[in-house]
Amino acid sequence: MDTYDCIIVGTGPAGLGAAFHLSANRSDLRLLLIDKERLSTGGLRHDCKMNFTYPVGFPADSWTREQAEHYLELVVQHLNPSFMNKTGLETYQRRAERLDVRLLDIRQYHLGTDGGLRLIKSLMTEIERRGIEVSLGETVVGAEPADRRIVTNRRDIGYGNLILAPGRGGFRFLQTAMKKAGVHYQDNIVDIGIRIETREERYPIIRDYYDPKFYFPGLVRTFCTNSGSAYVVKERYETREGRHYYSVNGHAYSNSRKKNGLVNFALLKTVTLTAPLASGQEFAEMLGCQAMLLGGDRPIMQRVGDFRVGKRSKAETFCDDLFDFQPTLADCAAGDISLAVPGKIMRNIWRSMKLLDTVVPGVLHPGTIMYYPEVKLYANKPSFIDDYFRAAEHIYLVGDGAGTSRGITAAWASGMRAADGILSS
Ligand SMILES: Cc1cc2nc3c(=O)[nH]c(=O)nc-3n(C[C@H](O)[C@H](O)[C@H](O)COP(=O)(O)OP(=O)(O)OC[C@H]3O[C@@H](n4cnc5c(N)ncnc54)[C@H](O)[C@@H]3O)c2cc1C
Fold this sequence. Notes:
By secondary structure, the chain is of the alpha+beta class. The protein has 9 helices and 22 strands. Helix 1 (13-25) packs parallel to helix 9 and helix 2 crosses helix 9. It is globular and about 65 Å long. The mean pLDDT is 94. The structure holds flavin-adenine dinucleotide. Flavin-adenine dinucleotide (FAD) is lined by residues 9-15, 34-37, 40-43, 46-50, 57, 139-140, 165-170, 173, 224, 249, 251, 399-401, 405-408, 411.
């Protein structure tokens, strides 16, 4: 059986952060990066918008500002971002403050979906140049912590240390691995919301601030704004029982692509459930399935003009008169999202939309589209036994899957933090 000093599962930003940091500090270590895909997935591959300011992407229960800022400076050295300019921020912030809304001033860098692919290729070339072994298209099916080996669909491999960074999509894999390693975990928060799509002139702030981060009362926030050449997409998810649902998302291409004049962004409400409900994840999955039931196995979309008067949207009038642009996600059912979104969540989101329209007038134009559901699941939160995301002897859990990040830069930082744990042991 082959044995490595460290095996890293996942070539997303968390896995890459760990690999680069380990190899930079200990070139003698034998490292293996494994991924079931042929290319890294997630945000590096879709849109690749990076935020370099705490607290965006850094869950407060895993990171202090000082820790995040320390690692963010190292992430900057690796990814060499060109930060985007912002203009007129004070005016928007003044308007927001009057309404108890916060607009964060975030350092941002946007590569676009095509730029992200180029970045992945150059990072993988550098990984190879450093002599880190990479195995793509190989799925890790489990870990055997007692004899320090992992089992893949091809072989058994021994490890000195193991870093698991399987992302949000690796939710179930991580849960099984945690059970096997005796790691205690608890339920995590879920984010549930809608995605807005409108004409750029109805959300002109994006000309001043690429991905404006608004925080509204009621734990609602704007998330992942895309413009220029921007599209709404749907992603397929499977529940524990094998049912599936689609969550919407958004991305944009780099500036070199033809612009479509549209902008999209999510409005997400964070939901923390406590006893007697056992699992926020299952709650969110049920909402996803319910939306599929109402949308005929597709997400639902509704024009603001219909929503505000309590009417469902219909396919035959969806692009009529004031409803003056085609939805970029065509495979979606015109309907009534208020039938599908829980009342409390919908009230909070609608209130946030009205507040947003007061800060940036235009977004409540009748033609604006609301897509549902946009669901963000995070794996169950492990109990860590040290400050380096070590969850069991020689096992570190990092990235979005382990709940230690919610974005590219924080995921990269969490991988580096686990690497520091290994370097200091
Ligand atoms: C459509 C989309 C757009 C996004 N846009 C942005 C954005 O613009 N900016 C931003 O900051 N964030 C964005 N995100 C979020 C971002 O992708 C994540 O925060 C980030 O990628 C998390 O990094 P990670 O390394 O934890 O996981 P991931 O990037 O998801 O990587 C996990 C890797 O582990 C592999 N893996 C999983 N299980 C196994 C297994 N059993 N065996 C082997 N390999 C396995 C997966 O194939 C995957 O490559 C986006 C996410 C999506 C889905």
